[in-house]
Amino acid sequence: MTIAHDESVLIVDFGSQVTQLIARRVREAGVYSEIAPFSSAEAAFHRMKPKGIILSGGPASVTEDGSPRAPEAILNSGLPILGICYGQQTLTQQLGGTVEGGGEKGGEFGRAFIEITDRCRLFDGLWKEGEAHQVWMSHGDKVTALAPGFRSVASSPGAPYAVIADDERCFYAMQFHPEVVHTPDGGKLIANFVRHVCGCRGDWSMAEFKAAKIAEIRAQVGSSRVICGLSGGVDSAVAAVLIHEAIGDQLTCVFVDHGLMRMGEADQVVSLFKGHYNIPLVHVQAEALFLGGLAGVTDPEQKRKFIGKTFIDVFESEARKIGGAEFLAQGTLYPDVIESVSFTGGPSVTIKSHHNVGGLPERMNMKLVEPLRELFKDEVRALGRELGLPDVFVGRHPFPGPGLAIRIPGEVTRERCDILRKADAIYLDEIRNAGLYDAIWQAFAVLLPVKTVGVMGDGRTYDSVCALRAVTSTDGMTADIYPFDSSFLQRTATRIINEVKGINRVVYDYTSKPPGTIEWE
Ligand code: XMP
């Protein structure tokens, strides 16, 4: 980052999977933060001149030789420090306390309740003595003797020093993870630390994030050229508009239109980019290529693999035609980054091969620009609004890369895509009319390869079944069904059957995730 912030918090990363969530909570408290790996934290500390430091969790054990430590310069700086999990353990050990390994049966994992045993500034306005609160634990080792100056202010059966405080030095530390949603008050604890203990005003905003990213992109790219693949979705659009603000016409966008988009969507993308933003855009109409290749394919993974590979082939050949681009821009979000890393450290099972341009940079020997890498979906939306993208565009539900192909179990044909597009448009129209669009994470229609008998007028019909799906979610990893009232479903079903030729029955999908996935394929 090249922009100076008069108020910032440094997050020292010891390798936890959820360090970015700490940064997110700090941003939510209106404070700018940067994450620095422990090995370069001292340099970041001198450069940033932060108002406070947070030490993250991590997979190592402080009882092992060579495990990472917080820089002494930070411990001696006189600034407030918050240690989380591993951060608590290394802080304790470095300041003269004791940490013991969990051994085979030690440790606490998952939901736990801590009892508040004393007051401290972290709890101000939040937790009181004698109360019990839910937190998320994930630790093997634990603190067994406090460093001088500390006292315990909360405990759990597995961690007598669940939260510890040294008010004089403004050092606080906890065994649990306040940054994850399963610690319901965790965001408030972090906000108390950065605002109340570190004294930050909390007036940092997405506008500043935008300015910092623009400066960063300019520094990274220089006078080189960048190409960006647009999927039609929010993430790649926000990345493209941000990069265009930074480097103007050094950016060319390529929109590979696979013909599997929703009603009117391809036109929207083209008019937004060409018309509104005047961003150089190559619109590749490749419907015939995609539908041709999908003919006869019914296996979901085969569909996904064909679409992913063809997308890359088309994109690559367009990029070569444009020529001279050194950088490839992608709208990768933080959940994409974590999903690709296994939480357990072991191999994770592939449920679906997600479609993205992974592998392309190596194949084309290009460098990556990924300005959204540390953001979550709702933050990307806020950034999109900051960049002036229309609300209806920015607020759109997520849409999968393989598009309608994975919402048409069985063979995908142009005719079936058209039928599905019409049903989907009616469903979304009804949802918008009912004022429910923003309350739902994702809603879409699925066209089933099943025909049933019906009666319309005096005639017999024998047509396809359409399934409607709507879910709530915070990140797409887990989801609950949206509980429409029956009059909404009746109205929508009637409209779809009356207005869409080829569908004579509508059903509603009541499956949460897990055990279902959001998409049907
Ligand atoms: P599932 O179906 O795995 O979907 O529960 C979780 C979220 O991911 C979206 N999704 C995709 N997004 N490429 C994408 O960019 C894909 O191949 C893909 N498959 C699923 C899905 O719409 C939901 O939001």
Automatic annotation (TrEMBL):
<comment type="pathway">
    <text>Purine metabolism; GMP biosynthesis; GMP from XMP (L-Gln route): step 1/1.</text>
</comment>
<dbReference type="Pfam" id="PF00958">
    <property type="entry name" value="GMP_synt_C"/>
</dbReference>
<dbReference type="Pfam" id="PF00117">
    <property type="entry name" value="GATase"/>
</dbReference>
<dbReference type="InterPro" id="IPR025777">
    <property type="entry name" value="GMPS_ATP_PPase_dom"/>
</dbReference>
<dbReference type="InterPro" id="IPR029062">
    <property type="entry name" value="Class_I_gatase-like"/>
</dbReference>
<feature type="active site" description="Nucleophile">
    <location>
        <position position="85"/>
    </location>
</feature>
<dbReference type="GO" id="GO:0003921">
    <property type="term" value="F:GMP synthase activity"/>
</dbReference>
<protein>
    <recommendedName>
        <fullName>GMP synthase [glutamine-hydrolyzing]</fullName>
        <ecNumber>6.3.5.2</ecNumber>
    </recommendedName>
</protein>
<feature type="domain" description="GMPS ATP-PPase">
    <location>
        <begin position="204"/>
        <end position="396"/>
    </location>
</feature>
<dbReference type="GO" id="GO:0005829">
    <property type="term" value="C:cytosol"/>
</dbReference>
<comment type="subunit">
    <text>Homodimer.</text>
</comment>
<keyword id="KW-0067">ATP-binding</keyword>
<feature type="active site">
    <location>
        <position position="177"/>
    </location>
</feature>
<comment type="function">
    <text>Catalyzes the synthesis of GMP from XMP.</text>
</comment>
<feature type="binding site">
    <location>
        <begin position="231"/>
        <end position="237"/>
    </location>
    <ligand>
        <name>ATP</name>
    </ligand>
</feature>
<keyword id="KW-0315">Glutamine amidotransferase</keyword>
<keyword id="KW-0332">GMP biosynthesis</keyword>
<dbReference type="InterPro" id="IPR022955">
    <property type="entry name" value="GMP_synthase"/>
</dbReference>
<dbReference type="InterPro" id="IPR014729">
    <property type="entry name" value="Rossmann-like_a/b/a_fold"/>
</dbReference>
<dbReference type="InterPro" id="IPR001674">
    <property type="entry name" value="GMP_synth_C"/>
</dbReference>
<keyword id="KW-0547">Nucleotide-binding</keyword>
<dbReference type="Pfam" id="PF02540">
    <property type="entry name" value="NAD_synthase"/>
</dbReference>
<feature type="active site">
    <location>
        <position position="179"/>
    </location>
</feature>
<dbReference type="InterPro" id="IPR022310">
    <property type="entry name" value="NAD/GMP_synthase"/>
</dbReference>
<keyword id="KW-0436">Ligase</keyword>
<dbReference type="GO" id="GO:0005524">
    <property type="term" value="F:ATP binding"/>
</dbReference>
<keyword id="KW-0658">Purine biosynthesis</keyword>
<dbReference type="InterPro" id="IPR004739">
    <property type="entry name" value="GMP_synth_GATase"/>
</dbReference>
<dbReference type="InterPro" id="IPR017926">
    <property type="entry name" value="GATASE"/>
</dbReference>
